[in-house]
Write a structure and sequence with these properties.
heterodimer; A: alpha/beta; Rossmann fold; 2 domains; 6-stranded mixed beta sheet; 14 helices; 46% helix; B: mainly beta; 22-stranded antiparallel β-barrel; 5-stranded mixed beta sheet; globular
Amino acid sequence: MLDRAWRTGSEGVGCSQSRAGLVRRVWLRCIRAAVLFFLFMLGTNSVSAAPLDVVVVTSGDTESYTAIARRIEQEVASKGLGRVRSISIGNVASLAAAGPRTVIIAVGLKATQAVLESSSDAPLISTLIPEAGFHAATTRAGKPSASAVYLDQPLARQLDLVRATQPGSMRVGVLLGPQSAALLPALQIEARRRGLQLNVAKISSESELFPALDGVLKDADVLLSVPDQLVFNPQTIPSVLFNAYRHRVPVIGFSQAYVRAGALAAVFSTPEQLADDVVDILARCVDNPRVLPPPQHPGRFSVVTNDQVARSLDLALDREETIAQRLRSREGKP
Amino acid sequence: MNLLRCRNFAWIGCVLVFAAFLAVSVSHADDIASTPASEEAMLFDMPVVLSASRLSQPRSEAPAAVTVIDRDMIRASGARTVPDLLQFVPGFQVSYYRGYRPVATYHGFTDEYSRRFQVLVDGRSVYTTIVGGVLWADVPLSTQDIDHIEVIRGPSSATYGSNAFLGVINIVTVLASQAQGTVLEVAAGSDEIRDSYFRQGWKSGASDWRFSAAYRQDDGLKGVPDSSRIPVANLRGDIFLNQNDSLEIQLGLNGESHTEDGDGAYIPTRTNNVNSNFEQLRWRRALGAGEDVHVQISHNYLNSTDNFVFGPVDLTALGFGVVQLPQNINFLEERYDVELQHTLAPFQSWRFVWGGGARLDRITSEAYFSSGRKIENRITRLFGNAEWRAASSAVVNGGLMVENNQLSGVDWLPRLAVNQLLVPGHTLRLVASHATRAPSLFEDRSNQAYYYQGTLLWQQFYPSAGLTSEKMDSYELGYLWTRSRELAVDARLFRDRLYNLVTQIWDHTTPSLPNVPISYRNEGSMDMSGAEVEVDYRPTRSTRLFLAYANMRATPSGFSADTTDGTQRYQDSVPVYSLSALLTQRLDENWLLSGAVHRMAPIHWLGDGGWAPEYTRVDLRLAREFRLGSQRADIAVVVQNLGKPITQFDGQNNFDRRAYLAFRVAN
């Protein structure tokens, strides 16, 4: 209808004009101006909002932590969201004097715990922290409204990786420990959705690990590693990998190091990817930083595979990027 | 058997000690991690664990037919010794010369010291220097410590050197990390079977350890005094030194003793003792993706004693009257070996393994060599194998070993194999190789004679005039069909031409001796051809059928009239067929039933062997699994040979029915 109105309007120029036509022309021009003004406002909204005061607190100064801090700084600057400053865990008390535009990014468990224990009520986004650790910290501090970008991948994505690397697999072996036991119900749901059978063993002490591992490996096409410090640590992983290999069972890991050690594949997020996800949250909530989205698993991720192990187990794997792409499209991402 | 009664007490003593352990479960440091999950649970760094040399080629790309006897098969078979397990490999025949001396051979053609294949335990060669074959009862190894046995059917000299003539048996033991906790086993049954086994595994910092002690006893075959008592102890440590370096340490002891039968006239029945031990160290360093290097050093020691009095002998014709001749048929041998191997994959689609090694064999045996001197033999070797992924569906393996054996000179041992994937799951394999077997010290040098006060009475063995290696040209067409975990079929047609054989002969070139002695000479050839099939079928999680069948044809030629066995017997020493099957069925979550069937065509064993007619052997095992508190346990009853007695290696003694009850508990 607007189309015909324009045409009528332009056709009408230069011709004899009635009074009704004049009113219509002015009315339509107002609408056009209003639309343009609205678009202008949308486009320049970020510039017009006040800058954020992003405070980054890291749990340590090793590469992972500093990489995140650096990336957040870069991205916040390039998106013009505000300014970034870093403070050490010891100075967390200074956050009490935070302003209305302050957003705290806590990198790691220690930083998260320190911020939660401080008397600051500035909005908090935690990152480089496992889901279980984040929940434990926020429940203890009684601050459920904090947001996070977890370090661990959603179970759905991990099971999709199982599917992508070993399409014929049916039985997934899982070893759960005290830190990961709570994930069992969710794991069962996601497995059932994909037609996968779970073979689960739960342990509560290290001496139970190898009998449990043996039992699980006997009846599994693949072993899914769910992060848990008791089950998967630098002392136990060599044995897990040896035993799994002896059973010809591939292991799905959770980090590049684990895959380099001998796991078949892993889906993981680099510090840069986590930082980008955090900055996305900041960008989305720049208008009202007090209302943050609920904690979430990372949206950006990569896939790494171990070709030597794949070849030895007679498994044909696609290239890492192809697998990652397949996982992304399964999640409905571009 | 009087000899065994006091041994029974020893066995009972062992059981009581072990029972005491049963009551006490060894606890480890428990880490109950109730700490909140931190990112450190995911961000730690790791050494390369599955480094290049630990990863085996997949079956579809391996340049040979490989049979794997895994842990499940070992338990389900009820076998107490490694040769009993080798029965399940297509083309293998197993028979017992005596209860303490099993004979395992590939494609027949052997006397009681089967010496035409290489046998390794964790990469360490265990065939004896003196006879060139394996004295199975003397290997410091418990069957319960075996994780799996890989048998390469077909010559593998290109990778494993001479002696890997007809094949290679590689016994891989359980990693220390797989053996954490305590295991106890006791078994008792007919034929004075009394077995016990204890193992303890533990962690210590960045290393895993396992220690096992075992005792095995039985009174051998019916009708002949050949009982044996075999105590064995083993220690293994797997240590991660740092990010890239790992160390494997192994020690083992075997103090076997057995009853050896006499001849009813001059040689008495007596007890012999063999003490053996080994030490082994393997250092591995991961160098990058698909690249690592390892160095292995090992030492084997074996001391066998057999002291008896031969006689009384009437030597009045020689002016000595009736005399007793004390005999000390002893030998002491040691082996030192060092090997380096480098695995690398520097370019896309190429993978290389190369390395070298040196071995020193040293033996002292007055009885066998008529000299108290130490006899030494040095072997050095250099090898390389290149694997080329020619296309996404074809793999070409080219390997070469150059070996310098002091006894027989330099040998070049090449192999070329092409694996072509036809359609997914179906692979065609073509292999051509040249292999050699160097003569054993006994074949080359044995000088066994009986003297009395300086007078030579009898020359049993006379030294050869210098031997060169046996040679073999081998061609194989193989077919592999796999369907995920459910089915694996490996079939092969082989055509082997063995020539320049080291043959036992009556030595007529020594008329000055009181008798015609036995010696060895390079003569004769055997053309062997046939087919082998192996099927591993697992239709459900509770059922498994493993089938091994071989069909063999041998044509001997070029043997002179001097041979001790004769051309016809050589042909008869290769049975027309041999068949084995193992069926395992899980009845429910607690009951496991397994049965084995072995059938072999008639065979005329060489040397001290005789005719063994066609036989069928059926074994059964029924196991009940249960829990004792937090510990897993099972009780099993095993019956070996449900049918008629089976004539064994010497054509006279039989393997009758045998049954035993075994109890095992693990935590």
